[in-house]
Structure formats: C-alpha cells, structure tokens
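Below is the data:
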Amino acid sequence: MKKYLILLALVCSFSFASANVNAAVDAQGAENFVKNVTADGIENIINANIPQAEKDKRFEKLFNNALDLDFIGQFVLGRYWRTSTPAQREAFIEAYRKLNVQTWSKRFDEFKGRNFIFTGTTPSNTKNQIFVNSEVPMEQGAPAKVVWRVEQKGNSYKVVDIIIENVSLAITARNEYSAYIKKAPNGVDDLIKDLQNKTK
C-alpha cells in the first residue's frame, strides 16, 4: 500500500509539472500569431503580383519579425556554438538568415493560391513552447502538413522551427552543418563562407 501511494504521488507530481510547463503557453495566442504570419505571407508576398526582388524584400521583413533567429542559429550550430567566437556567431546567423530568406522566398511560391488550414495545437515538452498544426491543400494527393514550433516570451511569440511533412527544418540544418564542419579544414569559418557563397 505504501509503495502504491508513493507511486501515485510521483505520477501526480509529474502530471502537475507537465501541466505547469504547458500552462505557461497561451495556445490560442500562439495559433493566432501563426495565422497572422501566414495571412501576411499569402496576401502580401505569395499572391502579390510584384517582382521577385520586392517579394524577397517583403519576405525578409516577415522572416525577421516572425522567427527567433538567435535561438535557431544557436540550435542549428549545435555544439559548435559553444566553441565559436562572438564574431563567428554573428557572421553565421547573418549568413544563415540571408540564405533562408532567399531560399524560402522562392519556395513559398509553391503555396500560391492556397490557404493554410489550422487544426489546433499540440503541447511541447519544452518550456514556453507549443506546436501549431496546419495543413495546405495541394492540387494532387493529401494536404501538406506544416507544423510550427512556437515559443512564447511574455506576450510575444516567435517561430523556432517549421516541420514540413514530419521533417524539421532546424534539425535537418543542424545535421547538415555538423557534418560539413567535421570535414571542413577551418570548421565554422568554412561553413560561413559556404552559406555566403550559396546566397550569392
């Protein structure tokens, strides 16, 4: 009986702790934030009849406002973030930002004429974070599943990862960059140059 009570207490404590982690996140607020980001992107960028250069400019503004680039940059650089100098960290985040703005500004054209359909949220085990679930109807086949990992800080929200069809963009970048750095003679410096060259 005593063992049962101890076990019950541990289960209750774990449940209470998990509830506290997720209670800190305003699920509706996070979902509304992502809805506003996608609506802005669709209306003012994807569906807008403007030159690609102007799309890039608008997407860069949206990208900078919506994503926590410092958090993402630290995550994708992984263990190499700790051994990088402040100058390397700053240069990496800037190169990473420019490359993603250029890449995703063009890739988002795949969603032209379509709208994101939101299907609720899923709790995250990470404090102050939550997953916002969405789907994008495609011309053929099943809708594309897009999950937004959102972090709340006070009354503000930032996207810290985008998961498309179960593939995390942040984890994919982290694995790719770690493999590159291991082989590169100059490590992080070579990675920064490679990202800069891809942007050019």
Q: What stands out?
A: The helical segments are 2-23, 27-46, 52-66, 69-77, 80-83, 86-107, 169-183, 188-199. The first helix runs from residue 2 to 23. Residues 24-199 form a domain with the Nuclear Transport Factor 2; Chain: A, fold (CATH 3.10.450.710).
